[in-house]
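Q: Fold this one first, please.
A: Sequence and structure below.
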Amino acid sequence: MIRLDAVRKSFGSQVVLAGVDLAVATGDTVAVLGRSGSGKSVLLKQVARLLRPDGGTVRVGEVEMSQADKSTVMEVRSSMGYVFQFAALFDSLTVGENIALPLRRGGIASDEARVRVLEVLETVGLPDEADRYPAELSGGMRKRAGIARAVVARPSYLLYDEPTTGLDPVTTAVIDGLMLEMKRDLQATSILVTHDIQSAFRVADRLALLHGGRVRFEGTPDETRSSNDPLVRAFVEGRQELWPPDSV
């Protein structure tokens, strides 16, 4: 499981997280919603210990990440896949070489790594792209390659940072389908950070709305759809007029 308790994070005088409580049960996917600048990506980086909280605790499995030493953090990260917002592929490496990076770090032999890379490329619908470079791929293809890299080592935890941003509806549906496939095949405990409420409804077991540095609402897709909270309704219905003036 992943659990955040009273997590706080500020950058200078700007308070981003003001006491976030969030729990993700083993094998579940929680979608974290919120407006731009609400701290969604900062929350995700706390889980991977890319950032350290100013206060509170972040637990991944049995490890309290904010207090763990470097070797323990690296061990946890080896069981974690991270899908970056813009794929974050290395331009100087081929798609296959990019995807193989987690396997190489894990000491997997090159022949086995090649087999694993080709298998996961088949899974994400890019069977013939191993020897191409990221610049030769469309945006949607790069997103799929980023997912392939995140899952090639068969992680226990998956962190998705805006995986459908900038994609057309058809490609978004493809990415959503991949996330559901990874959930089924890997049974990974996952956090999906997204602006896309429809994607969240398709993929997540629970949704959490981040606002004012805290989790304002959390519930199942059905509970989210039926919520009377004006901020939740603004997201569900895409209606700016429902957003309170002092909450912009």
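Q: Good. Now the second chain.
A: Here it is, same layout.
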Amino acid sequence: ADGVASVLWRHDARTTNGFNLAFGTPAKLLRAYARPERREVEIEEAPEPLFVLANDRVGSPEFPKAERAEALARAALDRAESPAQIAKLLADHEEPPLSRVTPPPPGARFGIDFVQRLQALCIHTESYGTVSSTTLAWDADGHVSRYFFAAGPPCTHAHEDVSGLLA
């Protein structure tokens, strides 16, 4: 984690597209936010190991789907589901009520109904959608021990155990 952080601290965020990044180990998870209007990449320690990082900061009110994903993940973990079972939550199509959706900016080429569709965990629109998904599990020593990948939308493509790629 320290090596990645040192690279990010030296990175000039104005030279790339903005990004959000989660990195580290289960014992020390970090989140980085880079925005092209600022030189510095902001790095913060995650206060707990389970969080959902959408296309904004953790906890952004503009992404109710992150709240839903976290609630589904917590419930799955409380039931001690396997990583393969947890991966199925990524196929969720539930959309929040319009009252929870942030309207698009004035002059946008799409309406609030489109923004609402983007708040599902598994997205399907004519022009944008979920193309794959990944679920990772760590062992007690902090090493990635299981790797599941769906090579398409998780509602139509099973998460395959590709843990052999970790060797």
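Q: Anything worth noting on the second one?
A: The longest helix spans residues 64-78.
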